[in-house]
Each structure stands twice: as structure tokens, then as C-alpha cells.
Design a protein that fits this description.
The chain is of the alpha/beta class. It has one domain: Rossmann fold, CATH 3.40.50.150. It contains eight helices and eleven strands. The strands form three sheets. The chain has a seven-stranded mixed β-sheet, with helices on both faces. Strands 1-2 form a two-stranded antiparallel sheet. The longest helix is centred in the N-terminal third of the chain and has 12 residues. The radius of gyration is 17 Å and the shape is globular.
């Protein structure tokens, strides 16, 4: 059984290295030890018991699966770009979901179409690794904020961490990491100011990345 599952896994592209148990691992750019570290950073401050969770830009679903495992009553995983632009494959997510968290729901929907009318509102919204890919980040964040009833967790590339003034840097072309889809890096002061402006009373900033290039923001209503 394990060998059959490993062959199924190896036939698909993976971004998250997901532990299927019994020594079965997906390949993946983001290794399982980093995923576990990120899980602690994302979910450590939260109690998901009985809560609803929306995971935007879920890719292979590592954090959707974690939310389900941690007791969330409902998890909706959404993506579009990574499933349709050649970066990933929705079948990878569906295989991981089927084996590890079959109650997780999924929807192929672009960020720009995520509205309360389309998907509803959730106790906790995860917006991980998406913000700096938005061409219109302020409008996008404002739209996503309407989906969060209690907590919005934003993880993004950041810049100028010691600058107390809110600033955001534009990266035209492929200046940031050689990727045409990397557009903006806020500094922590900027992201905190944006989230407070959108109605969140408290914003906690942490650094989940050992190279100090990324920031995580837990915003609470």
C-alpha cells in the first residue's frame, strides 16, 4: 500500500513536502520540517476548536490539513493560480486531502473573486505567501479582510524591518527573486498600519523565516 501511494505521489508536482505517514513523503520545495515550524507560527496563538477556517492560496494544502487536524469545524481551501499556471496541480491537493483530511472543502477561485457572497465569512482566514504577488495589494487586502470574522493571518515577504515609517517597495519585472509575479514588499510597520486601518484592533508581528526575509501578522478584531 505504501509503495503504491508513493508512486501516486511521485507522479505529481509538489510544493509542500507532506508527510503521509508510514514513511511516505511527497517531494516538495518547502520541506516537512519547515512546514511544521510554520504550523507552530501560524496556529500557535490560535484555538481552532469548532472554528471555520479559509486557506487562501493553499497550493498542496499543508496548512488546510493542519487546520483540520487541529480541530477546525470547517476548512475551505482555495487556489487558482498555482493550480492553473503550471506551478502546481490540483490533483496533488486532492490526493493529500483524500488521505489526510477528507472533510476539507476546496474551490478553484482567483483571489479577486473571493467575496462574502461567493465563499462566506470565516472565523480565521489564512493569507499566506499571497500578498506580495498581488498587483493591487491594498485593494486585495481590503477585500480579503471582509472574509475574516475574528482573525486574519497574513504571511508575506517584507523589507526595511527596522524602518518605523510605513513603506512598501515596488518590484517591477523580475527584480524580486527573479519572479515576474513578485510585485510588492511591505515593511512590518506598513502591514500593521494597513491591517489596523481595515478594522483589526490588534496586530501581532513575528518572523517565521530564519533569514528574516518574511513576516507573519496575526490581526484580531
Amino acid at each position: 500500500m505504501a509503495q503504491t501511494l508513493q508512486r501516486q505521489i511521485d507522479a505529481l508536482p509538489w510544493f509542500h513536502q507532506i508527510d503521509f505517514g508510514d514513511g511516505v513523503l511527497s517531494p516538495g520545495t518547502i520541506k516537512s520540517n519547515k512546514i511544521r515550524r510554520m504550523e507552530r507560527a501560524i496556529f500557535g496563538p490560535l484555538n481552532l476548536g469548532g472554528k471555520s477556517v479559509l486557506d487562501i492560496g493553499c497550493w498542496d494544502g499543508a496548512y488546510s490539513i493542519a487546520a483540520s487536524r487541529l480541530g477546525a469545524a470547517r476548512v475551505l481551501a482555495t487556489d487558482h493560480f498555482s493550480w492553473n499556471a503550471g506551478w502546481g496541480d490540483r490533483r496533488s491537493f486532492q490526493l493529500a486531502k483524500a488521505k489526510l483530511a477528507p472533510t476539507v472543502e476546496d474551490m478553484d477561485i482567483p483571489v479577486e473573486e473571493l467575496t462574502p457572497e461567493r465563499v462566506g465569512r470565516f472565523d480565521v482566514v489564512l493569507f499566506l505567501g499571497v500578498f506580495y504577488h498581488l498587483r493591487h495589494p491594498l485593494a486585495g487586502l481590503e477585500q480579503i479582510a471582509t472574509l475574516a470574522k475574528a482573525v486574519l493571518v497574513v504571511e508575506t515577504r517584507i523589507t526595511q524591518q527596522l524602518n518605523p515609517r510605513p513603506v512598501m517597495q515596488f518590484h517591477p519585472g523580475s527584480l524580486l527573486d527573479g519572479q515576474l509575479t513578485n510585485w510588492w514588499t511591505p515593511n512590518p510597520a506598513c502591514m500593521i498600519a494597513l491591517l489596523r486601518d481595515l478594522g483589526f484592533d490588534r496586530v501581532d508581528f513575528t518572523r517565521p523565516d530564519r533569514q528574516f526575509r518574511r513576516g507573519m501578522f496575526h490581526a484580531y478584531r
